[in-house]
Amino acid sequence: MAETAQPSTEEKSCIICGVKSEERILLCGEQQGKPVWVCVRCLPALIHGGH
Ligand SMILES: [Zn+2]
To answer: Model confidence over 1-51: pLDDT tens digits?
Structure first.
């Protein structure tokens, strides 16, 4: 086990497309009691019920 796993790494990324906050604005939400991040591009799809 050469690599050191760091579970505390909390890197925000869109739950839909996986984009990072460095590339696009991410908005914080909540899903089933857990905090989730969605980028502004995927948010409209969520609002309109893309699934
Ligand atoms: Zn996205």
So the answer is: 667 655 445 689 999 999 999 999 999 999 999 999 999 999 998 888 855
Instruction: Confirm whether 1 is domain-assigned.
Output: no
Total domain count for the chain? 1
Q: What is the DSSP letter of 16?
A: T
What residues sit around ligand 1, an ion, with C-beta below 5 angstroms?
A: 14, 16-17, 39, 42
Give whole-number Cα distances, 19 to 2, 6, 42, 49, in Å. 28, 21, 10, 20
How many whole angstroms from 2 Cα to the centroid of ligand 1? 33
For residue 6, give the 3-state DSSP assignment: coil
